[in-house]
Amino acid sequence: MNTLSKEGWKGTAVETSISFIGKGVDEGLRISNYFNKSFLLIVVLLLVFSNFGPVLAEDVSTEDKFEQVYFTDFGDSGELTPENWGFTTSAATLSINEEELAGNNTAKLQYTIVDQSGGRVATKTFDEPVRGTQMLVEYDWYPGEHNDKGTHPNENGGEFRILDSAGNTVFTLNHTKNAPLKYFLGNNEATTTGFSDPHTWYNLKIMFDLLNNNVTLTMENKESGEIETYESSLDGVSFDGTLSTIRLVGIRTSGNNHTWTTYLDNIKISQVPIADNVITNVPSLPYHRVYAGETTENIDTIGLPDTVPVVLASNEIINVAINEWKTTDRKWNPEQEGIYHFEGTIAEDDELENIFSRKASIYVYNRLTPPDTNRDTEWLNRGVIALKAEDGIFISWRLLADEYDKDVSFNIYRDGRKLNDEPLSITNYMDEAGEAGATYKVETLVNGKKADISDVTAASKDYLSIPLQKPEGGSTVTGEYTYSANDASVGDLDGDGEYEIILLWRPSNAMTALEDVITGPTIFDAYELDGTLMWRMNMGMNLTSGPQYHQFVVADMDGNGKSEFLIKTADATKVYGATDGVYDPEKVISVIGNEEDDGRWINDGGHVVGGPEYVSVFNGETGEVIDTIDFAFPVEKEEGDGGISWGDNFYNRSDRFLSGVAYINGKTPSAIYGRGYYGRTGFVSYSLKDGQLVEDWVFDTDEAGRGEGLGNHNLATGDVDNDGFDEIVAGSLTLDHDGTILYAMDGEMGREKGSHGDALHLGAFDPDREGLHVFGVHEDPGVASLQYRDGATGETLRSFYAFKDAGRGVAANITSNPGYEFWGAGGGTAETGGGVYNVQGDLITDSFRDIGLPVNFVTYWDGDLFHELLDGTTISKYDEETNQVNVIESFENVVSNNGTKANPTLQADILGDWREEAIYPTEDSSELRIFSTTIPTEYRLPTLMHDTVYRMGIAWQNTTYNQPPHISYYLGEDVREDVLNGTLEFPDVDYTANLNAMKHTLELTSNDKKLNVLQNKLEQAQRHLNNGRTMQASKQLDVFIKHLAKSDLEESVKDSLNEDAVKLKDMWNR
């Protein structure tokens, strides 16, 4: 036996065997036993004369060419600086261990993860990237034991990763408990090694050969002396030719908190030097955007750059010329929307060497131009409110979307007295002499002519109160429970142009998906704004109560001018009516499934384990069920599997639901429902056609083969690619309107890797970049903690790495700089995501924490075009001049919802001008209070609810981890003059069938006195309808249709009004 001296620590050499593994995953071929014996003799002789163990082929041929760039033995040969050689981590521990471990009694790096619910990361970034024709990473690794999976389905693991300067993970060595070590390059297929012992030291040599475009991995078990060698191609691997960062990464599986201790020693990074004038890297270029039809087949018309920056071996960055650009994947088609990849050949230069044959690379996004849309939209009345303010009574009212560019103005009356001298173009007024109880009228003028009048009685408070009918509590085997008011949504349930509220009542024993509780049933109430109860729904005992359950949709799905209510139901879900506006338990309106099976389909932990799972849609006005169908994603994929397809067998990952609304056909809203986001992820789109629920499409990552584990606790919807149809932004996964993957944040094509996350924002965040953008935070410490990306392509525009679970994030416009700002729970420095950043690149402040900037909801409140910040029951504002945050509004005697999430029951523009209301329950849940601003504003804008991105945001706001809505157009003080001049552009709206909407359209269209007869017929039809005389109302519409055909209105207006009249007649005559 021979004593070895290996890089600073001693071990004992035993009989040595060496295995050579060929290229490829499945092409491994060990040397024959006969040859092994002969070769072993040679190796033994070499060991006798050497202190360095087995001599490999590359040791002789290449190691003498390498120059050491970085080295550490973690303190054996001198003081270790910086601490832990610069490795950093969060929620884990790094230390220097000098105790004996498997023959190593020298100093070594110890990395310990204890009972962590997320993956943890230790990171070392080199002062300067390593560059060379060949680069060699050597280190000793003791993998260490991972905690056992126990009853959980999957084992935990850990990885050693090498990254380049662009953030690409180039090399990964994976160790999963009870499995052999395996490695992979980039996202390529993994190669399994013959080593599996976690309780021994391995010496690893990873050589990157840029001339031959491959990587050679040599692994030696230092105890047994066994050696294996592998070679893999770098083809298809995103790699900029540098080595910049090494990481140790913990991999935690579902429900199995991770415990792991691993060790590193003797890290040495070397390179074969190259001349300073060698081009080592061509950095990735940002996407180049053009619009379909605006270029030609001549590539020169695209506007690709003539020069690109390159990095030389000296670390100098210079610009070089491009000889020619060519597509690599498909021929350029100027008319065809999509992403095209181009490569540029670098022009020869006598002063430069391009020995690696580097090329420039750029993606061209041939984008569709913004479409002209005419989506089904709710008609809303004037929504006048009059609230007590410090300076009197503050009155505000709505401007509808189709009134924005019209000659629409207003007069204000108090108790019959006109208050304004000239008609008002804005939609708010402060009456300094006003008092509570006064009657205010808002008179609308169209082209100077009186159109309608709305009135309201001035309130004595700065809020409106909705009395609630709190359900009685009860008890389960878990114990007693009571109810409290929770999340809500709004819709015009009865078609009168005023919103009603659907409120969720949550029992006090509600649970998260990780818990085991027999909960009380969730209850929903539908209220008019005066507190009149319309109906009550008891979800029953076959559905668990908690924040991950009972996501619901309120939307006009059939275009009848009244919103429906859609939700996942089960046997014994029951709807009760009201008598004189009071809950009546004797008035059963609807029962879903088999009432006798109430509570049959849950286990002792309160989780749904089987039985029928439904989706039902209900009449929003009456509570009567319209249709019920089987839910597309039952808990069990195969009977008896215990929900394992979702990622665990204890019903945590299966009990994760999402919902929203999207115009997937570009015209009418559909309901989106999802299950799962930690692993398997499923979404389904439901439309309501002729009184029946229809599955438009079903998406399942099990069928798609990708996209799993990228979902959020929330979603957002909007037309990100300008095709006129809405996409579903489900965290790091974006689905196209047809239910296929538009893109995933997968580390390819300029998209930095994403993961599951807790916060998500979708909106028009950059005035210089047309379209919708996405900001989100991620839970996986191995990916970007904060990430800002293009909504259509997924191109990462800005990102910050804190190597931690970033649980909060916000996008809002809070400064005078063009574009929104964003911030989130990243690291403690600006470099690691702890600052406040403008989307166009500026750093606003180093630390959002130091100035107390909230990370929750954003709102429009005080009258300027900036956002204010709503958190809990307070509203704050960022002061750009002082870099401070000031509270400007506190709501008293009310409470926020959902614990630390601290969100309102609802934030939405449901009354008054374009600014938003904040709705909260009182502490005893006896009432809801609707708070609205009493601060005047000079800006005239249409109601936010007529912007479909915002309106859909209100529909999905209740989903799991509530997020604030955003608008589809850009607002900010930098576009102040455009707003004041009324030059913003808004899409057309098509009001759903409604007599008041038809009358409104006539008033806006023409002042011709011939239209009086048309308006008269609509008014007569309304009177008959109010008295229940649908046949007479239908006859008035027959006359209306005849006169309409003879009118001189534009054909498009006539067609729209005719369609609405026919639809109304059909609904009345059913």
TrEMBL record:
CDD domains: RGL11
Domain Rhamnogalacturonan I lyase beta-sheet residues, every copy: 376-455
MF-aspect GO terms: lyase activity
All copies of domain FIMAH, residue ranges: 1011-1064
Transmembrane segments: 39-57
Keywords assigned by UniProt, alphabetized: Coiled coil, Lyase, Membrane, Transmembrane, Transmembrane helix
Top-level taxon of the source organism: Bacteria
Coiled-coil ranges per UniProt: 1004-1031
SUPFAM superfamilies assigned: Integrin alpha N-terminal domain
Keyword Transport included in the entry's annotation: no
Pfam family, one: FIMAH
Domain Rhamnogalacturonan lyase family 11 C-terminal: 463-977
Keyword Cell membrane: no
InterPro entries linked: FIMAH_dom, Ig-like_fold, Integrin_alpha_N, RGI_lyase, RGL11, RGL11_C
Name of the featured protein: Rhamnogalacturonan endolyase
Species per Swiss-Prot/TrEMBL record: Gracilibacillus ureilyticus
